[in-house]
Amino acid sequence: MPLLVMKFGGTSVADPDRIKNAALKVQREVERGYDVIVIVSAMSGKTNELVGWVEQTSPLFDAREYDAVVSSGENVTAGLMALTLQEMGVPARSWQGWQVPINTTAAYSAARFVDIPRKNIDQKFAEGFKVAVVAGFQGLSPEGRITTLGRGGSDTTAVAFAAAFGAERCDIYTDVDGVYTTDPRITSRARKLDRIAFEEMLELASLGAKVLQTRSVELAMRYKVRLRVLSSFEDTDQNSGTLICDEDEIMESKVVNGVASSRDEAKITLVTVEDRPGISAAIFAPLADAGVNVDMIVQNISEKDYEDHPGSVTDMTFSVPINQVERAKRAMEDARQAGHIAYDELVVDTEVAKVSVVGIGMRSHTGVAARMFKALADENVNIKVIATSEIKISVLIDRKYMELAVQALHDAFELEKA
Amino acid sequence: MPLLVMKFGGTSVADPDRIKNAALKVQREVERGYDVIVIVSAMSGKTNELVGWVEQTSPLFDAREYDAVVSSGENVTAGLMALTLQEMGVPARSWQGWQVPINTTAAYSAARFVDIPRKNIDQKFAEGFKVAVVAGFQGLSPEGRITTLGRGGSDTTAVAFAAAFGAERCDIYTDVDGVYTTDPRITSRARKLDRIAFEEMLELASLGAKVLQTRSVELAMRYKVRLRVLSSFEDTDQNSGTLICDEDEIMESKVVNGVASSRDEAKITLVTVEDRPGISAAIFAPLADAGVNVDMIVQNISEKDYEDHPGSVTDMTFSVPINQVERAKRAMEDARQAGHIAYDELVVDTEVAKVSVVGIGMRSHTGVAARMFKALADENVNIKVIATSEIKISVLIDRKYMELAVQALHDAFELEKA
C-alpha cells in the first residue's frame, strides 16, 4: 500500500472545527488508496501556554520536566484527530512518541532522532488501520523519559517518519499555500513556485523564509524525502502547493529562484584588530562558547602599519542575530580583558537587514553577482557586507532599504515570470 | 526511610502559585525526614476542557482516545510540581503512568489497578531523589495504551501508591479542612472529626459527602491505608484534618458519628404489581441492564385480593438518582410492553431527599432507629422509605424538610460534642 505522511501545524488544528477540516484532507488521501501517517502539532497557543507556566515556575528549568510538560499539547491533538477520523469512518488511532517508539538522543529540549522502528505502526496498518496519528515534536530518550525536538520539531518529525516508512511524499499543511519567490507582503509580484530544489529551500529557510524549519529540509534532503508545502485552509489537490524535491525532478530551473530577506540582523565590527595567525579563532571561539550564531564574516585585509600599531592590523566585521548582540559584546569584552584579543573599538550596527538571492542555477551560470550588485546600485542601496555560497549571494544593507532591495532584485531576475 | 503519599486535587494545583503552595507542604514533609510520593490532579478546569473537546469531536468516542487526551492534564501538573520542588532545592522528578508503570486493566475510562511495581521509583529514591511526583488518574493497559480510572481517579491513585509502597499515611489535600459530622452549610453546629473509621467514611462518601470518592475509601479499607483529609489552603501540621483509619485506632466512638444527606434522589413506585416469586428479579434486572443505580428498595407486602387482580398484589418502591428517572421509566415501560412485568401505574416523586445517620457504634448499640424516627416525628417530618445497614439508617423524606431533618438529627445525637 502506498504511504503518505501528512503534517498539520498549530493553526491547522487550532480547534475541533479545524481538526475536522484537516481530517477531511486525510480522509481524501485514504480514499485515494493511501495508508497515511498524520503528524500533528499542538493547538496553536497551547505550547506557548505550557512554556509560560514552566518559565514562571522555574527560570532555569530542568529540561526533562520542560519536555514532559510541553509535549502534552501534541498528545491532545493526536487523540482528537484520531477521534475525528473515526467519526468519519476512517480506522485511525493516536500514537504518542513513547508508544511508537520515536527513539531520540537524551538531549532534552533539543533531541535528535536515533531511530523510528516501524514494527508497531506497521502491525496496526496490517490489522486494517488506515491512519496512524502521531504526536509531533516529541520522542523517547534512552532512559525512558520524554524528549522534545526543539523549534519546528513537528516538521522534522514528519520528515523522519516519511524517511523511516518510505513515504511517497511528506505533505506539510500550513497557513500559506506554498513557497514563494519572495515574501508576498513585500511585493505583490511574488510568485508561488511549483517546485524548488532541496538546496534552494534550505538556503531560503535559513535566510528567513519561515515556511519550513531548516532542520526538516536538511533531513528531507539527506533522505530524499519529497516534501510538499500546501495550505490547510484551501481546497487542495495533488498538484497544490510547492514540491520540494531533488533537483533531478526539476526540468529547467531559472538561475535565481528566490529572494530572501531578514531584518533580525546586526553587524558588529571590531576596529583595528591585531592581524596575526590564529586571530580569527581567538575571536570566534569565545562567540561560539557564548552561544552566538555568527552568520556572515568579512575581514578587511590591511597591509599598512599604523603609528601606534607596529604590526599589521585589520578590521573584522560579522553579523549576528539582533537578539544576541549583548551576548556577543560581552564575549568580546571578556576576551579582550583576558588578553586573548586586542581591538580599539567595537562598533554595533543594529539597523541592518540581510537580502539574498538563491538558485541552484548559479552553479553553472556566471554574472549573477554582477547583476545583483547593479540592481542594488541602480537603487542607490549601499552594500555593507557580502557573503556567497555555491547557490546564494547575501548582502547586508541598511534596514530601511530592505523592501526596496527585495523588489529591485525580484524584478532584476524576472522572478514574476514562470 | 519512612514514606508518605500526598495527593493534591485540581483546586490545590490550579495555577503556578498554588502549585508552589502545595510544594511547600511537600518540602516540609521532606524536611521531617520522609520520602514522598506526590499524586497530582490536573489544574482545575483543564480536564473539563479536554472532555469538552472530545465530546464535541465524537459523541460516541473511542475510550482509548478519550483516555489519551484527558490524561494529559495530569502530566502537565506533574512536570510543573517537579520543577517547583527542584526550584526549592528538593530533588524531585515527575512520573507519567506508563513510566512507573501503573499497570491497569484495559477497561478504558474506567480502568482498575493491576499492579504498581516499585522498582523504578525505589531506584530513584535510592539515587537520592526525595520526591516522586506521579500524574494521578491514569495508567497503562496491557496493550501499551493509556488508561484513565474514572471519576475521583486521583484519590484512588494516591491510595494505591500508599498501599504499594507501604506508606505511613496517605494525605489527601483538598479545599476543605476535614470530614465533618454533617455538611457545615446545613448547620453551623457541624463539627470536624479528628478520626473516623473506614466503614463510616465509606457510608458517608456513598451517601453524598463529597470529600472523598467512595472507591478510594474502599481501597484504603482493603489495604489498611491510613488516609488523612486536610486543607491545601491552611497552615497544617501533623494533627490537622481528619484521619480515616481502622476502627481499632479509634479509642471511643460515639454511636452515631455523622449525618449525611443527598438531594439528588427520586422515588419511583410501581403500583399494584403482581406479587409472585421472581417478580423482584423481573423488575430490577431491566433496570440494571439500563444502567440505573437503584438505591433503596421497599416492597409493601399485600395479602388482600383486589377485585380485578385475582392473585396477590404488592406495591414496589425504589429510589434512583434523579438524573436516571427517565431511563428507569423507559426500562419499566419496555418490560411491561414485553410482558415481563405487570403494574397498574408508575408514580415518580422527584421531590425527595435522603437523610442518613452513620456510626460503627450502631453495631453494639440498640435504639438508634427509634431515636432517629422520634427526632424526625418531633419535627413532623414524614418518612417515605426506610433502609438500614449494619452501621447506617437512611430515610427518604420530602426534599423541603432535608435541612430541617439534618439539623434535628445532628442535635438528637449530640454530634456537636466531641
Automatic annotation (TrEMBL), chains A, B:
Residues 268-355, 357-418 form the ACT domain. It is an enzyme of class 2 (transferase). The keyword Nucleotide-binding applies. Pathway: Amino-acid biosynthesis; L-methionine biosynthesis via de novo pathway; L-homoserine from L-aspartate: step 1/3; Amino-acid biosynthesis; L-threonine biosynthesis; L-threonine from L-aspartate: step 1/5; Amino-acid biosynthesis; L-lysine biosynthesis via DAP pathway; (S)-tetrahydrodipicolinate from L-aspartate: step 1/4. PROSITE patterns: ACT, ASPARTOKINASE. Belongs to the aspartokinase family. This is Aspartokinase. It comes from Paracoccus rhizosphaerae.
